[in-house]
Amino acid sequence: MSRLDPISGFPEWTPEGRALERHVVDSLRDTFELHGFIEIETRAVEPLERLAGDSDAAKEIYVLRRLRADADDGDSGLGLHFDLTVPFARYVEEFSGRIAFPFRRYQIQKVWRGERPQEGRFREFYQADIDVVGRESLPSHVEAEVAIVMVHALARLPIPPVTIRVNSRAVVGEFYRALGVVDVTAALRIVDKLPKIGAPAVRELLVDAGVSGDAVEGILGLATVTGTGEAVEEALVARATAIGGPSESLREAIAGLRSVVDAINTAVPGASVADLSIARGLDYYTGCVFETFLEGHEDLGSICSGGRYDSLIAGGGFPGVGMSIGISRLVSRALSAGWVNVTRASPSVVVVAVNDEDGRRASDSIAERLRARGVAVEVSPNAAKFGKQIQYAERRGIPFVWFPAADGTDGEVKDIRSGDQNPANPDEWMPPPADLKPRVERR
Amino acid sequence: MSRLDPISGFPEWTPEGRALERHVVDSLRDTFELHGFIEIETRAVEPLERLAGDSDAAKEIYVLRRLRADADDGDSGLGLHFDLTVPFARYVEEFSGRIAFPFRRYQIQKVWRGERPQEGRFREFYQADIDVVGRESLPSHVEAEVAIVMVHALARLPIPPVTIRVNSRAVVGEFYRALGVVDVTAALRIVDKLPKIGAPAVRELLVDAGVSGDAVEGILGLATVTGTGEAVEEALVARATAIGGPSESLREAIAGLRSVVDAINTAVPGASVADLSIARGLDYYTGCVFETFLEGHEDLGSICSGGRYDSLIAGGGFPGVGMSIGISRLVSRALSAGWVNVTRASPSVVVVAVNDEDGRRASDSIAERLRARGVAVEVSPNAAKFGKQIQYAERRGIPFVWFPAADGTDGEVKDIRSGDQNPANPDEWMPPPADLKPRVERR
Q1: pLDDT band per the 50, 70, 90 thresholds, residue A104
Q2: Which residues of chain B have a CB within 8 Å of the CB of A52?
Q3: Which residue of A lies nearest to B63 if distances are taken between CA atoms?
Q4: A1-152+295-342 CATH, one of 3.30.930.10, 3.90.79.10, 3.20.20.140, 2.40.10.350
Q5: Taking all residues of chain A, what is their mean pLDDT, rounded to a whole number?
């Protein structure tokens, strides 16, 4: 690795790429805030004992050590967070006396995972999380509400349409128990591997785990069910009937799953299906679970996942529903697939030319008057020939050059795209609204 | 350390504190962009060989290690960046073919320093940097320009007035050489300790370093010079005359220092003084150096520092001027000193009440109509008695509660502060502008 090579898994963007990332972050913020979510940030580190549970992510923790640590102070006992859920759970406990419940929070920060370097896997990336957490109880309609906020948020991004695939731990749990499965969590962890290893391999693992042959077929059959509305409800009831049910509670769980999918589709038509194969390996989910796929880019995996949990936070007194978007993967794909055009990297809409260095003060003053009215401006770094100063703007995609008059008065402004040049007053002139700020356009 | 204790040096804010931090970041972004600075972000890590120079900060590097690393993969060879200057220098080299010079960039990110824990020292904090970097050359007026952007940026923050103290490496270098000092850099590093250890201790260190008695007194005398305009210029020329000068180049350097201070004071009257004691330990500065102090809060140290450099970036082909604000320290002091009031933590300006769970859909629809017009809204999580739903808004500082009519039509909106309640249409109603978003007010 030369000192200048990119580091695998730690993406960096050009200024245009960063402008797209900012656009995504700002758009998500705006949607989350319109829905009353409060922003928090947590520190980048957590005590290792809190991070290193038994989830897969724990293997990938980056531990910190001071380079020139004292003898008694080797490892700091701190690791970088690998998601925003673990720190949020700790924050809720720590700040529980100072926040009002139900607590609607969003959080957009970088997280780190020490994965083996491989194509398309990031070791540093942005996540955007929303969660609603109650104290002691949380109504079930929050499951649909959180997913709806996320479909609205995703619909505003310059990305292809998404489908949120919804499953219900309650439905799956009832089914598995009715099939005689003893360790529902262990079975779910195996089913979670379906998209990676396929049904035959999952069948084998389930048999190895001691699940009976009939139950294995029941589990795999259930995982084939997808759909919306009455159709999926009927399909599930039929399957339950075939194994001697459904019980009252399974019937309710099925109706609950359908109602979440329907509510999402009411908000954004066609955005959601029930999918009984969605398992999500994490043990803490207790209600609906969500995964989200991008049309035509399913190879990215789920770009927005989450679900309902009841005992993620110590003691179980803080039930919640949360979902998380992987921003960096979206930005990376948007850049490589050319979904967007960034009109310019520079915030400046005007370069104020400089007649000669003695006249720089006059150019600065025109710039200040424009800035006072919200127009982003820079002053030419030198008093080169006007052709050179126009080139300075051109190379940066800045559409206007302002030429102060030789006597230091206001002068004229030129649209360097059309060549139009007109006298103008910096206390009044505005660029066309489309030029005022750089824009991210869908291509 | 219990699992819930705060970790010394890793600050976290309540939602109100984070709202203030966001306000500061957004305000800085706005000022930087009005001046045509382009945002970039760099990865949080750099190769250790690039971080571990001989600066003091190198001692404080946090090295990363994968928790369950393979045998051949102990340390990753990566450390967390301790400032934004080192990564920016690397970025400029790496991306030099894809950016236009002079490059005006800003960068607002967290940095990490593994310092010993102590009062008021952070191990994780936000920095906001601006730099203008040229290719091969950079005009000297950029030194004043960068400082002026920073005084404008700081003047907009809800903090006390600041003073930017300016020194010139050129002036100091010429003086030291005229005094017969051989190793100017070494002498400067000692003078940098003045505010910490005082003149007698600095005198001793200089003598120990082999500086002659006369030269030591000359160095300490020079460090007492402060002022603006003609007065400081004359004071410096008089001192130079006393030691047989000034040379033509020292005369120019003195005039240059005065002109930077004057330019800052023209932009924001009273914001700057020349201060010949400002040394800044970092070796890479070659022109003006800046430190910024907060009136009445000098104990915070410099809150915004930087200067001109000519060979920070490999090969010396990228001269630049940069300054950096320590955001977290400002936010921390603003919170502890009570400089600001955050009107509410929640972005919501309205809570839409729910008559009964069957009517939730009607409440959701009113909320969606308000959001479509940019009004941040949340729907009551339950259909409790209206008194309880009003209390929900009250506890969050949300000023309005919307009551849908029993038949699901628009209903009425109540200002819960005044008790005023009126029929309203969610396609037309707007809150008073002062209520639309949470505000950060100076107290």
Answers
A1: very high
A2: 67
A3: A65
A4: 3.30.930.10
A5: 92
Q: Which CATH number fits domain B1-161+295-342: 3.40.47.10, 3.30.930.10, 3.40.50.740, 3.40.50.300?
A: 3.30.930.10
Query: Is the CB of A114 less than 8 angstroms away from the CB of B64?
Result: yes
pLDDT given for residue A35 in this prediction: 98
- Name the pLDDT band for A4 (thresholds 50, 70, 90): low
> What does the CA dihedral B292, B52, B44, B19 come to, rounded to 10 degrees?
-30
Nearest by CB to residue A360, choosing from B41, B141, B357, is B141
Task: Kindly determine whether residue A34 and residue B94, on different chains, have CB atoms separated by under 8 Å.
Answer: no
Which pLDDT tens digit goes with each residue over A249-303? 999 999 999 999 999 999 999 999 999 999 887 778 999 999 999 999 999 999 9
* Among chain B residues, CA nearest to A33: B347
| Interchain contact, A19 vs B39, CB within 8 Å | yes
Q: B26 in contact with A at a CB cutoff of 8 Å?
A: no
Length of chain A: 443
Give me the total of CB pairs closer than 8 Å, taking one residue from chain A and one from chain B: 215
Please tell me what DSSP assigns to residue B124.
E
CA distance B276 to chain A (A): 27
B52 interfacial to chain A (CB closer than 8 Å): yes
Residue B112: phi, psi to the nearest 5?
-130, 135
User: Is the pLDDT score of A72 beyond 60?
Assistant: no
Contacts of A276 (CB under 8 A, 6+ apart): A167, A171, A172, A222, A223, A224, A225, A226, A236
ipTM of the complex: 0.95
Domain boundaries of chain A, sorted by first residue: 1-152+295-342, 169-280, 350-442
What CA–CA distance (Å, rounded) separates B209 from A279? 69
Chain A residues with CB-CB distance to B139 below 8 A: 381-382
Nearest residue of chain B to residue A46 (CA atoms): B7
Mean pLDDT of A100-111: 97
Contact A348/B102 with Cβ under 8 angstroms? no
Task: List pLDDT tens digits, range A328-350.
Answer: 999 999 999 999 999 999 999 99
**Cα distance from N-terminal residue to C-terminal residue, chain B:** 36
Nearest CB neighbour to A381, from listed B43, B63, B139: B139
Q: Region A400-406: what's the mean pLDDT?
A: 96
Q: Report yes or no: A417 at the B interface, CB cutoff 8 Å.
A: no
Burial per residue of A338-368, b for 16 or more beta-carbon CB atoms within 10 angstroms, e otherwise: ebbebebbbbbbbbbbbbeeebbebbbbbbb
A45 part of contact set with chain B, CB < 8 Å = yes
A84 phi/psi in degrees, rounded to 5:
-105, 0
Quote the pTM value: 0.95
Amino acid identity of residue B394, one-letter, is E
Determine, for residues A376 and B36 on separate chains, whether the beta-carbon distance falls below 8 Å. Answer: yes
- On the question of a common fold for B1-161+295-342 and B350-442, the answer reads no
What is the homologous superfamily of the domain A350-442 according to CATH?
Answer: Anticodon-binding domain (3.40.50.800)
* pLDDT band at B443; cut points 50, 70, 90: confident
> Is B388 within 8 Å of chain A by CB?
no
